[in-house]
Amino acid sequence: MENQLAKSTEERTFQYQDSLPSLPVPPLEESLKKYLESVKPFANEEEYKKTEEIVQKFQNGIGAELHQKLLERAKGKRNWVFVILTIEK
Fold first, then answer.
1. Phi/psi of residue 25, each to 5°?
2. Could you tell me which residue ranges the Choline/carnitine acyltransferase domain spans (predicted)?
């Protein structure tokens, strides 16, 4: 009985997944802004300034390159989050 309930719930949960639009990859700047906003309450002024510097270097360097690769790969993949997980492996 328990397995039957789990199966029927899963079928209903993902029933329309293929008909939903893919989520867009957010702009790098937006993601980095959200990151800085999330860090701010936990960092003192000095730590936050250093974090801003690191984020700026990332945005202008390897971050821009990685983001471009993500955008390219996401064009051919329905779920770009899955793409991220496979890149990290």
1. -75, 125
2. 23-81
